[in-house]
Amino acid sequence: MPATVPEPRRVGNADVIHHDGFDDSIVSPFVPAIRAVSNARLVFISGVTGAPVYHDHPHVPAVFDAMPMDAAGQVRNAFAHLDLALAASGCTRSDVVNMIRFFTDVEADQNVVNSYQSEWFEGHISTSTTVEVTRMATDPRLRFEFHVVAAAPGA
Fold it and tell me: Which regions of the chain are under pLDDT 50?
């Protein structure tokens, strides 16, 4: 049975955020989100992919066998994971101020991602950078990963 999602935990001038799916038995070197404590609450979201957010490190390849292998399936999963992290951090889609997008094949997948991203943001446009890389560290079958920063209104 998964662990109860812990309340945000203050670390220095930031809150460590977890969301549904949290499992304290999983060994992981990251958290899904960190919310800076300031007037403009900055939220830094760990790389979002189509793979399960919470997974062991070192990686167990079988954990990723159930993820979609196509770009459309992976982008749906990735943005669903992004929604969880944003909501758990007290942010909305329109609070996203920056996305760094890493693709293993920009030509093959960028249009699929752009189309889904446009619908997902519902008219909001964030800053963005797109980079092509050799592979993702989590699993070689991942096609892209997104680094996201959000800025929520001050509390």
Answer: 12
